[in-house]
Amino acid sequence: MIQIHNLYKSYHHSEILKKINLSIEKGEIYGLIGQSGAGKSTLLRCVNGLEKFDTGDLIVEGVNLASITEKELRNFRKKIGMIFQDFALLNRRNVIENVSLPMECWKYDKKEIETRSEALLDLVGLLNKKNCMPSELSGGQKQRVAIARALSLNPSVLLCDEATSALDPNTTDSILRLLADINKELGITIMVVTHEMSVVKNICDRVAIIAKGSIVAEDTVENIFLKESLALQDLVGQESISVPENQTVIKLAVRSCDIDKNFLWKLASENQVKFSIVSANIEQSKNNRFGHLYISVDNRELDIARSYCEANEIQYTLVHSCGKGAEVGVS
Q1: Where does the record place the ABC transporter domain (predicted)?
Q2: Can you list the domains of the chain with their CATH numbers?
Q3: Fewest CB atoms within 10 Å of the CB: 40, 86, 203, 253?
Q4: Which letter does DSSP use for residue 221 in this model?
C-alpha cells in the first residue's frame, strides 16, 4: 500500500529525513512517534505530496511520488485525506459546507455533494449539527467535522498529524474510537503522527520511532512497548522502583496469554517461590492486553524464579540484585 525506500530529505544543508524505509499494509493503522523535530510531520507531508524529498522512492498505491508530474500530483492528492491538530475549519462556512468544500473544488455534482456530505456527517455522528457554525461546536465536534471533510473525496489513505493533541482525554478516546470504526468500516489505511503513547496503544497495529530523521525502531505496538528499546526509553523516561533489602526485583514483560495462564499463581504454588508485587502496569492495546509486572524475590530463590520464567518463555529483566535496600531507576 505505502512503500518507502531510502527516502532522504534535506533543508538548507540540514538533514531532515535520512534513509527512511517503511512498508505499510492496506487497511493498517500505523503510528509514527518521536520527539519534537524528529521528522514525523515532515515524513507525513512527503506522503501526501506537500513536501518534496531529495532522493529515494515513495510509492502509494502504485504511484511513485519520486517521478510524478504536477498534474499527476494533483490527482494523486485526491487519494489522501488529512486531519490536523487545529481542525482547520472555515469559520464563515457551516458544518456541512466545510465538509462539502473539497467536492466543490473538484466540481462534483451538487446533488452528489449534498448526499455524500450528509452521509459523512452521519458517519461521524454530527448530522444533527450540519447547519451549525464552527464556533458553536466543541473541540471534539470540530475534529469530527474535519474527519468527515478529509473523507469527502473517498481517499484510500488518511493522515493524522497530532489530531488529538488539543483534546481532553475523554474526547481523545471518542475520536480514537471513531477512527478505529472508520478504519474497520471503510478499510482505509491510517497513518498517525503523535507524541501521545496512549494514542498508539489504543488504535495502532504497528509503530515506528523516529529520532533525528531516522527510523530507529519499528515493530508491533505490543513488542515496541514490551521490549523497551533505548529509543523508547528516550521518549518515555524511567520510573523509580524501591528494592527491599536482600531482594531482587524482576521485571516481567507479560501478554494476554501469560495473564490468562495465572503464571504468578503457578510460580508461588508449584515452585514455592515467595514474592511481592512491587509495581504493575497492564494496558489494553488495540488487540491484546500487555504490560510489565515488577516482583521482588528473595535472593535465595532467584534462580528458581528465573528458571520458571525461562521455561515458560516469559521475558524478564533483573532490575536489582544486592544485599541492601535501594531505589533504582528502571525503564
Answers
A1: 2-237
A2: 2-234 (3.40.50.300), 239-319 (3.30.70.260)
A3: 86
A4: H
In this prediction, residue 325 carries a pLDDT of: 43
* pLDDT tens digits for range 161-205: 999 988 999 999 999 999 999 999 999 999 999 988 889 999 999
pLDDT digits (tens, 9 = 90+) for 145-158: 999 999 999 999 99
As a whole number of angstroms, the distance between CA 286 and CA 228 comes to 18
Residues 6+ apart with CB under 8 A from 207: 30, 31, 32, 33, 200, 218, 219, 220, 221, 224
Residues whose CB falls within 8 Å of the CB of residue 223, separated by 6 or more in sequence, listed in order: none
Q: How confident is the model at residue 322 (pLDDT cuts 50, 70, 90)?
A: very low
CA–CA separation, 107 vs 84, rounded Å?
A: 24
Grid cell locating 287: 488487540
Which of the pair, 269 or 230, is modelled with greater confidence?
269
- List CB contacts of 304: < 8 A, sequence separation 6 or more: 271, 272, 273
Which grid cell is 57? 522512492
Angle at 117 between CA 111 and CA 123, to 5 degrees: 140
